[in-house]
Amino acid sequence: MMILERNTLLIMAVLAALFPLLVGNQYALHIGIMVLFYAVLATSLNLIVGYVGEFSLGHTAFLGLGAYAAALLSLRMGLPIWATIPLAGVISALFGAAIGAITLRLRGPYFVIITLAFAEVLRIIANNWMGLTNGPMGLSGVVQPALLADASPLAAKRFYFYLALAIAVVALYLAYRFVYSNNGRAAVTVRENRYVAQSVGIQPFAYAMRAFVLGAFLAGLAGGFYAHYITFVGANVFGFAFMVSMIIMVLIGGKGTLVGPLVGALLITVLNEYLREFQELRMSLFGLIVIGVVLFLPNGLMGFLNLRRERRRATPAAAAESHAEAPGGSA
Amino acid sequence: MDMLLQFVANGLVSGSFYALSALGLTLIFGLMRVVNFAHGEFYMLGGVLGWFVTTYLGLNFFVGLVVVVVAMAAFGWLVDRFLIERVRDQGEEPSILLTIGLSIFLTNSALLVVGTAPLNIAGAVPNAPVFLGPVVLTQMRLFAVAACAVLILAAYLLIRHTRLGRAMRATFQDPMAARLAGIKTAYVYASTFALGTVLAASSGMLLGSIYSVQVSGGGLISLKAFVVVILGGMGSFAGAIVGGLILGLAEALWGGYVSSGTVDVIGFLIVILTLIFKPYGLFSTQVERA
């Protein structure tokens, strides 16, 4: 499982790195950039949903904090892009530690509601604190890196594609190292059975906290990238629309796997673009997709594939076993 | 001082709607343990349906309300039997996702059908002002508050003094024992869900006759209902009512004295503080740590 996942991720990274060289179309590159952006977001949410086993509906808090942090650092303090994006991640992670310290004491529906409450509070603050965030008008004109000053639009898109790819690689590397470390195994134990985990000396809170802060850091990086790429940050970065996209991606791909959210990000971003002309119809359709996935594909596409793989492997073994038992049964 | 009284009156009016809609959620979330994110959409559907039967079909307000109640009861029943039933006893997460999917579907389908313009429901009584000392209210508001109170009382009597209500209480105390005693728990769950849906929808229609119906406003309504249920205590009847009134009052005072742009923040602050300091809520019926 570990090696299969690692190899799949490496192949995906190579394919993604070749993509801008083969494609000279700005629109296709933009979609590629959005796929990578959502891949980072979905991966970060997956750390909480898939590995802590608690359902956060307030993950946009960290996306938004990262986006506002990068925009403010760039506009007010004139920091360059290579400083703003990592700082956006760090600021998000600090807020993650503070918010996690409060929210991770709760579980189940209470955790869902309190994370959502934090995201909403931040959204309302962003919408009303005119002095800092410019309120509903948002922060526009986030500074572009100097080396793009006289680059062609296509070259600029390529630059952002590779930047997004770099962030996605960092995100998946960290997620991979986390998931397959003692931390990750402890987190999975907590997810599967909290009481067994506690009885063997794992402190659920400490491990959940690490996953939560890492998730916040990655979402902050994605937010910082978003601020520079879109060049505008408004309170909608805290909104429920981003949250819904993230959830659908993690869910369709399969939570608790590293490849799943990437598959989900690719599928949903492309589907989203494909249905762009039918705004409300598209969202209705998404609603139905979510209902369908919960009812018929509860572990997502990756869960479904894994199940099939295990069954195929199990079938010959089971056949051999029943064959061996048959003489004993007749005797 | 006069301003204060006016704010208090306004807060109590909106609080009674919060109470009615939260009462529906306390049945679904507090007793059935379904984290229903489509609650605000049921509220919105009640308003849209109310607009449809009164303005479009031209029915009388009271006949319209009865039609809405019957239609939404059937809708809630079907949602439970066809969707919630399949994820019962699987923990919270599937039901959260399922109802989020349902809420996205309902909001956007409603937007496709009726558009984004606010819909006005013709009220049952004229919108003339009523002067109670220094406080000004409209007849429609007083009527709507009275209607809320009647519906709350009806729900209370249904749960306390009917066969169905006894079956509900038995099922939520111990589903296995209830089944052994011959209660068809599947019907009890569906009825409870339908009752919760009806309470949300009638609250939506009543409030729609005072202000107007916003198709896309369901999300915030859901959240406020959760705030009230958590503040009042899961599954608590009195908690939903007191919690609703507290939220209404707090919002009116905050809007009046602090800033009207950040009114919605107060509910979220309440829920965060409640969960930190009093996670059982004010009137919890179950001794349980959040």
Task: Write out key terms for the chains shown.
heterodimer; A: about 325 residues; mainly alpha; two-stranded antiparallel ribbon; about 80% helix; about 0% strand; globular; disordered C terminus; B: about 290 residues; ABC transporter involved in vitamin B12 uptake, BtuC
Descriptive overview:
The complex is a heterodimer of chains A (331) and B (290). Chain A is an all-alpha fold and 331 residues long. Chain A is 79% helix and 1% strand. In chain A, helix 3 runs antiparallel to helix 4 and helix 4 (81-103) runs antiparallel to helix 10 (204-230). Chain B is mainly α and 290 residues long. Chain B has a two-stranded antiparallel ribbon with strand order 1-2. Chain B has one domain: ABC transporter involved in vitamin B12 uptake, BtuC (Orthogonal Bundle), CATH 1.10.3470. The mean pLDDT of chain B is 86. Chain B is globular. In chain B, 73% of the residues lie in helices and 3% in strands. The termini of chain B are far apart. Classes of the chains: A mainly alpha (331), B mainly alpha (290).
